[in-house]
Write a structure and sequence with these properties.
234 residues; alpha/beta; Rossmann fold; 7 strands; 46% helix; binds NADPH dihydro-nicotinamide-adenine-dinucleotide phosphate; SDR_fam; NAD(P)-bd_dom_sf; Beta-ketoacyl-ACP reductase
């Protein structure tokens, strides 16, 4: 059954790959963009997830053009790494506002229509770092760990309404975000990953599509790692 899907930050990287998997299987797919055009075949809606009014307007546009959002993939995210002692309050707050509060703004806006439609899939893109920790990533790790508590609380609130809220925790995926890491750090991580490689965005997208599908209807409040074994036990 074709669904209406909204992927935040779906104009590039992991989000784009996720959006393309849904489009390929025949779903109606919208992606948020902050500038430029949406990739072909996807409805682009302007939205900065740090702005509640913009989130509301984006959902209103998707609802008008594609129908109520049945699958929300909260993927938009950013890093602003530095050591705790050097981290400014602004650096901490901006990352939390985008990665955690941004996801919450979208989940809140999506929830009423999901309850009314008696169907919903919320998928939050966290990170292995959320539970594993990462030196220089106090802000990012806190935001990604926060998504776990949020998804599990949504599960408890809305689980009886045929709504699932799950977390996908990728490890190291080849995108602009990891391209920005110093080579030394990349090499260190590669050594720690049992799979001994970084992953392609498609390897995350397949898991997200599975979570949104009928086969995963009884999977709720879960954290699914897609990390080549890096975070085992976390
Ligand atoms: P990219 O940096 O390649 O893309 C980030 C996406 O998020 C872009 O579409 C960007 O939009 C969007 N975005 C950032 N801030 C905002 C905002 N305020 N409002 C709306 N959109 C925003 O990242 P990845 O594709 O690598 O990462 C996607 C998600 O996966 C993130 O949540 C990230 O934390 C997570 N992740 C990534 C891993 C990796 O190894 N790459 C590992 C684990 C988790 P724009 O194009 O306008 O900048």
């Amino acid at each position: 059954m074709a669904r209406t899907v909204l992927v935040t930050g779906g104009n590039r990287g992991i989000g784009l790959s996720i959006a393309q998997v849904f489009a390929k299987q025949g779903d109606r797919v919208a992606v948020t963009t902050r500038g430029g055009e949406a990739p072909e075949g996807l409805l682009g809606v302007r939205c900065d997830v740090t702005d509640s009014d913009a989130v509301d307007a984006a959902f209103t546009q998707v609802e008008a053009e594609l129908g109520p959002v049945e699958v929300l993939v909260a993927n938009a995210g950013m890093t602003d790494d530095t050591l705790l002692m050097r981290m400014s309050e602004d650096q901490f707050s901006r990352v939390l506002d985008t990665n955690l509060t941004g996801a919450w703004r979208c989940a809140r806006r999506a929830s009423a229509k999901m309850v009314r439609g008696r169907f919903g899939r919320m998928i939050f893109i966290s990170s292995v770092v959320g539970l594993y920790g990462g030196a220089g990533q106090v802000n990012y790790a806190a935001s990604k760990a926060g998504l776990v508590g949020m998804a599990r609380s949504i599960t408890r609130e809305l689980g009886s309404r045929n709504i699932t809220a799950n977390v996908v925790a990728p490890g190291f995926i080849e995108t602009d975000m990891t391209a920005a890491l110093p080579e030394e750090r990349r090499a260190e991580y590669r050594k720690a990953i049992p799979a001994a490689r970084f992953a392609a965005p498609e390897e995350v997208a397949g898991v997200v599509a599975w979570l949104a599908g009928d086969a995963a209807g009884y999977v709720n409040g879960a954290v699914i790692p897609v990390d080549g074994g890096l975070g085992m036990g976390h």
